[in-house]
Structure prediction request, 91 residues.
Amino acid sequence: MQIPKLVDVLRAVGHPTRLQMVCLLRAHGEMTVKNLQETTNTKQSLASQQIGILRRTGIIFGRRQGNCVYYRLGAATAPLVDVVTTMRDGQ
Prediction:
C-alpha cells in the first residue's frame, strides 16, 4: 500500500464511529447500513456519511441485495484493520 493511501486509511479509521463500524464488520463479516447505524447508536444520516468515507478510502465495499446494501471489509485493507483493532483491544 502506498504512503498516501495508507495515510487516508489511517485517517478514516481514526474517527471513533468509523473505527467502531470497522470493528463490527471485522467481527460480523457483513452488515447492513441499518445494522451498523443501530449498533453504533448513530442517526441514519451520520451513519451513511461515515460509511461513505469508509467506502471512498476502500476500507469497505458494499453489495446490493434487494433494497439492502451489505457492507464488508475490503481484502486489501484487512491486514491494516487487523493491526488497528488489535491495538484498540490492547493486545
About this structure: The two ends are 24 Å apart (CA to CA).
